[in-house]
Amino acid sequence: MAAGAVPLRSYRAIFAARFMLTLQYRVAALAGVVTQLWWGIIKVMVFAAFYHGASHYQPLTFAQTVAYVWLGQAFLMLMPWWGDPEITEMVRSGNVSYERLRPLDTYFFWYLRGMAWITARIVPRATMMLLFVGWIVPAIGLGKWGLMMPPNRAAATLFVGAILLAVLLSSAILMLINILVVVLVTDRGPSLLASQIVTLLSGILVPLPFFPASMRAVLFFQPFAGLADIPFRIYSGALAGGLAFAGLVQMTIWIGLLIAIGHALLGRVMGRLQVQGG
Amino acid sequence: MSGLSLYWRYLAASLRGQMQYPGSFLTLLLSQAIACAAEFAAIWALFLHFGQIRGWTFAEVAVFYGVINMSFSIAEVTARGFDIFGGQFVKTGNFDRLLLRPRSTPLQLLGHECRLTRFDRFLQGVVIFVVAARFVHLDLNITTITLVFATIAGGVALFTGIMILQATLSFWTIESLEVANTLTYGGVEASQYPVDIYVRWFRNFLIFVVPLACVGYFPIVRILGHADSLGAPAWACAASPLMGFLFLAVALRVWRIGERHYTSTGS
């Protein structure tokens, strides 16, 4: 059934329900923040040591690299690490067959659920992290270890836009993982595969500008760069002007493409769904 | 049956169990291998750019990387029972059964699962250490070889100790706390580089609180014949892996205190 036939209201309700539910896990969020802070501290110190005495041209300044690291820790839950656990559970129990009965487009139904799940996990974690490294750390005089402010208003505005696009992109990638889970009837392989690819290609492991120059063009144009590299470099002003704009356009194209692919694939998969259990 | 032969029985049973699902086993093994390779490639990419880190070369850092990953992977393969202790033993009440058996609980937990899927980290550590040792022209004599083995043994003891402390915590918190990963995985991450690159408070934490530097930095400085910028005497560097065993002994004492505190969840 076409998405347009359903009032937008139901999609909003789907989003709100999952968002509020995921937001309940406050202790998990706090524990996550402490862990991410510790990792961030180690990474920042390692970079400080690398930059110490490094004379020749670097693709990012130290402050930009530190911003890249902290944003990576703050927005860690933006990454599509695993398939959506609710969908995985449905596949395992066989309840996925009920999804065929709903008067909604299954793709967009799942897409919004996943987007709510991702957003609700980012909001508390990112708020706490950004407050800490952007405000408290500089306030106690450790400014060079903290998160820099965006150099100008344009960078800040573009960053907000880029993060919103990144949420859409992440949800589109999450849907591809979900489809793999439905086809393979297990989440183990798809999740492992996804987490390895995302870690390496998003820039979370090492900022993409530090890869050898010959690989950089390819790395910039692959879809995973939109999850971390492009927004984070826009924030610090390392990607500005026309290039920043190109980054956003690149992300938008990938979002459209991945949604189209996912939509077509899920249609085929749900059309010949094999159900386990009962 | 002696403790050791009982432990071998546990190991054999666990391995047979894992081999029942060869597809899953191979998938995990492969993905682990990719993860390890990516991790090391990341360090390599940084060295391509910066050339050195506070005077240390890539090959020297690779020695640190190899040693700490060998230690950690052995602990990770064997001490899995402690890793999942909170969720699988305290929360479920399964720990009651362990207490009823006429054997010590640490032995039973060590034998709980031998997670062979994490074995590739060990192989990677060996390969990187051997290759890096050639590049830094490591002087292989009886002293350095003994010290390498002592360092790895001390590292295994230390990481096992951390996992035991992590498990002990769940006598109070019921669930396993993910925060403890900061010391295990975070410890590996931090020890992949020589500790003299870090700021003082962090360095002191790695020397005096959780003595990761004693099973990494100090003995390796001695093995490499590199000058120690922290000024520890040579004998202290050579003896420092003992701190790992001391840490394990303390962790086992704390475990016993926690065990006395244990009240079954009754489920």
Mean pLDDT of chain A: 89
What is the strand tally of chain A?
A: 0
- The overall number of domains of chain A is 1
- Cα shape of chain A: globular
**Low-pLDDT regions of chain A:** none
**Poorly predicted runs of 5 or more residues of chain B:** none
**Biggest interface and which pair forms it?**
A-B, 30 and 31 residues
Multimerization state: heterodimer
Q: Please, how many helices of chain B?
A: 14
Along the chain, the helix and strand elements of chain B come as: HHHHHHHHHHHHHH
Total number of beta strands of chain B = 0
Q: How would you sum up the global shape of chain B?
A: globular
Distance N terminus to C terminus of chain B? 31 Å
Beta fraction of chain B = under 5%
What are the secondary-structure elements of chain A, in order, as H or E? HHHHHHHHHH
Helix content of chain B: over 70%
Tally of individual domains of chain B: 1
Largest sheet of chain B: none
Number of helices of chain A: 10
Summarize this, please?
The complex is a heterodimer of chains A (278) and B (267). Chain A has 278 residues and is mainly alpha-helical.
Please explain how this structure is put together.
- The complex is a heterodimer of chains A (278) and B (267).
- With 278 residues, chain A is mainly alpha-helical.
- Chain A has one domain (3-271).
- Chain A contains 10 helices and no strands.
- In chain A, helix 1 crosses helix 5, helix 3 (62-74) crosses helix 9 (229-235) and helix 6 (153-184) runs parallel beside helix 10 (241-271).
- The longest helix of chain A has 34 residues, at 106-139.
- In chain B, helix 9 packs parallel to helix 14 (242-261).
- With 267 residues, chain B is mainly alpha-helical.
- The mean pLDDT of chain B is 87.
- Chain A binds chain B through residues 31-32, 34-35, 38-39, 41-42, 45-46, 49-54, 58-59, 188-189, 192-193, 196, 199-200, 205-206, 210-212, and chain B through 24, 27-28, 31, 34-35, 38-39, 42, 45-46, 48-54, 177-179, 181-182, 186, 189-190, 193, 197-199, 202.
